[in-house]
Design goal:
Blueprint lengths: L2 H5 L6 H24 L4 H12 L12 H20 L3 H5 L2 H25 L4 H10 L5 H10 L6 H28 L6 H36 L2 H21 L4 H12 L5 H25 L9 H22 L9 H7 L4 H13 L5 H26 L13 H5 L1
Helix pairs in contact: 2-3, 2-13, 3-13, 4-12, 4-13, 6-7, 6-9, 6-14, 7-9, 7-16, 8-9, 8-17, 9-10, 9-15, 10-11, 10-12, 11-12, 11-13, 14-15, 14-17, 16-17
């Protein structure tokens, strides 16, 4: 009997879970390192590790295993918390107009194109919404890693890309919350969408205000009383509670985790918290990406519908983001660099796909097509950016993004 069959049993032995986790961590690290040797993000290797370990090849990992699902969800929250910690809102305001324009067009255009393509391919409205939503994301971590490696993070084009990518993620998470409400049976209307959007933005604003007032004194006292590890532990606990609060008020868990990261980002404690989060993330985050890969049934790639849908999504995904780079017509920098920098979907696109699969909206073929789009757009951007920007420059201290986002 395959191990996947064993872990699907009602009562899973601890030893079986440990073997599954060991296989996940070893494969994710090995293939992640191999991907980086070929100049690709580690997330690509982790996805391929999931495909290899999943039911369609080795059958070592069952993505439907409840304990694996819980660990993967924790990995998503840690990842979004860390992305929030890496986000400097003050720096983004310096290119706010251009970044906001790129972000807005970079959400609306891919979403609309994706929805139209999906409906033209015969998909019902709800799966088409998930398809469109999956095209709105831009991976902050992957783009930041390439720009940092080239020593270009401080250039204006890079700041526009990073600012727009962060705004994309915030708007994308709101879209995800809207889609989740619809999947849950809520009726879609202008009023309901406006309410969900207001709740999401209102929650972010309120949490940031409370964080600005409460975090410095509370964590200042904790720093005097405890160790660096204690700071990271309390911060992560607060991020989890903020995620729960976001869910309770009608937003999404990941918006809460991301907002908690934003609240801690400007504080003097952020570096210490980040070091602790990175260490914990090395365990949990790969579980998420491997479970996403394991849910892909590569046998569906032999179906013409999957290939046609996947290629169509790649085309509209690239066109939508590159066009967004040209949206701020007044910006004097290299707009093509901005557009290409917005192309990779990475970890956020996978969160959309996983949400749709878990909710039962995406069938295996459509899930595989979206994952195919995420992988291809993630692979395209790094070499194109390196070709367009030229040789790497000397990188000032502090330019390299944090390790967890860099690996994701």
């Amino acid at each position: 009997m395959m191990l996947a069959a064993a872990v699907s049993a009602a009562e899973v032995p601890v030893t079986t879970v440990l073997v599954v986790l060991a296989a996940i961590l070893i494969a994710a690290k090995a293939l992640g390192e191999l991907a980086e040797r070929f100049g690709q993000p580690a997330v690509v290797g982790e996805l391929l590790a999931g495909v290899l370990l999943g039911p369609s090849i080795l059958g070592l990992v069952d993505p439907g295993l409840p304990v694996l699902h819980v660990l993967a969800e924790i990995g998503v929250l840690i990842l979004l918390f860390h992305i929030g910690l890496e986000t400097d809102l003050r720096r983004l305001l310096s290119v706010g107009g251009a970044a906001a324009t790129v972000a807005l067009v970079g959400v609306v255009l891919p979403f609309g194109l994706g929805y139209v393509v999906a409906t033209q391919l015969g998909l019902p409205a709800l799966p088409a919404l998930v398809v469109g939503a999956s095209l709105t994301a831009t991976s902050v971590g992957i783009t930041a890693r390439v720009l940092a490696d080239l020593g270009r993070l401080q250039e204006r084009e890079s700041q526009v890309v990073l600012g727009a990518a962060v705004l994309d993620d915030i708007v994308g998470l709101i879209i995800l919350a809207v889609v989740a409400q619809i999947v849950g049976g809520a009726t879609l209307s202008v009023g309901s969408v406006a309410l969900i959007t207001a709740i999401a933005f209102g929650f972010v604003a309120a949490a940031l205000l409370v964080g600005r007032l409460a975090v410095p004194p509370v964590f200042g006292a904790l720093a005097r009383l405890g160790s660096e590890q204690a700071l990271a532990t309390f911060a992560l606990a607060l991020a989890f509670l903020t995620a729960v609060l976001a869910d309770r008020v009608g937003s999404a868990l990941i918006i809460g985790a991301f907002t908690a990261g934003l609240a801690f980002a400007p504080t003097v404690h952020a570096p210490a918290i980040e070091r602790g989060v990175v260490r914990l993330g090395h365990f949990f985050v790969p579980i998420f990406f491997v479970s996403v890969g394991a849910a892909v049934d590569i046998r569906t790639f032999g179906e013409s519908r999957v290939i046609i849908t996947g290629l169509a999504l790649v085309v509209v995904g690239v066109v939508g983001k590159v066009a967004a780079g040209y949206a701020p017509f007044w910006f004097k920098g290299r707009k093509a660099v901005i557009g290409v920098g917005m192309v990779p979907r990475g970890e956020v696109g996978l969160i959309f796909a996983q949400t749709g699969r878990t909710a039962g909206v995406l069938d295996p073929g459509l899930y595989a097509a979206i994952t195919f789009m995420v992988i291809v757009t993630t692979l395209l951007a790094p070499p194109l950016l390196k070709r367009m920007l030229g040789p790497a420059r000397g990188r000032p201290s502090g330019d390299r993004p944090g390790e967890l986002v860099h690996e994701a």
